[in-house]
Every structure is written in C-alpha cells, then in structure tokens.
Amino acid sequence: MTTGDSAAVRAAGVVLWRTAPAGVEIALVHRPRYDDWSLPKGKLKRGEDFAAAAVRETREETGLDCELGAALSSTRYLVDGRPKEVRYWAARAREGGFVANEEVDEMVWLAPAPARDRLTHDRDRPLVDELLAVLGVG
Question: Bridge partners of 88?
C-alpha cells in the first residue's frame, strides 16, 4: 500500500504523554465497540490533513488539547479487507479533562511499561518505545 492509495482508510493518532512525579505517563483509551485499549486515533474528515485530524481526534477521545511533537511511525493494516494507514505523532497533553462518551468509555494514564502491556494491538507497542526515544527517556 502506498501513502497515496486513495482506497485506503486514512487516520491519524497520537502517543499522548504528560510528566508525572514518577516520570512520563501515556494515555490509553478503551473503546467499548472493539473492547480494546488503544492510542487516541481516528479517521480523517474530508479535506482534513493528518496533523489536524490527530489533534481533533485526541480532543474528541480524551477531552484534552495537545501539542503535536515529532512525527512517529505510521501503521498499516487491513480492516475488513481494506487497507488502513494511521499516522502518529508524539503529543504532549495540555488542558482539558476526560469525559466518557459513546466512542471511548475509559481513559487511563500509565507509565510506559504498563501502557505497553495494556495495549491490545501489538502494532501499537513500538510507538511507546518511539515516544521514549524521542523524549530521551526510558
């Protein structure tokens, strides 16, 4: 699949982080529709670029504004036989607060190792390591 594949589902997300007394914490969201623990992400709207979608989806899923940092790896996989590309960024959490909604019913802040363990999909775990490398921690 190429980046410009018009048949591909295009999505954007973040590895959302904050500093805590014990170090860096990473936000994970629980999506009841899939019963999974995931990084905040979602599909692009028509005419929206990847970075704008990442910020919007983060706000929608976590209630938090964020500041995008370094671009991280993209993931590519099939959903119902259709290719999907998700571009990710490191993103520092800013103001706001989580409120459960239809799409996301729970959010947790975890240290990197427990966050990596809680993620449902193997493809998401390397993004935690990438974030730590970008931040120069871990």
Answer: 13
From 69, 84, 49, select the one nearest 130 (Cα to Cα): 69
Report how far residue 22's alpha carbon sits from residue 98's, in angstroms, rounded to the nearest whole number. Answer: 21
Closest CA to 41 of 26, 56, 63: 56
What domains can you pick out in the chain, each with its CATH number?
Answer: 9-135 (3.90.79.10)
Instruction: Tell me the CA distances in angstroms from 66 to 23, 90, 98, 107, 137, one per residue in order.
Output: 18, 10, 13, 15, 20
Whether pLDDT at 20 is above 50: yes
Give this prediction's pTM.
Answer: 0.92
Name, in order, each residue with C-beta under 8 angstroms of 138's C-beta and a sequence gap of 6 or more.
24, 112, 129, 132
Instruction: Write the pLDDT tens digit of every residue in 2-19.
Output: 445 557 899 999 999 999
User: What is the pairing mode between strands 9-20 and 82-96?
Assistant: parallel
In terms of Cβ atoms closer than 10 Å to its own Cβ (0-12, 13-18, 19+), residue 119 is buried
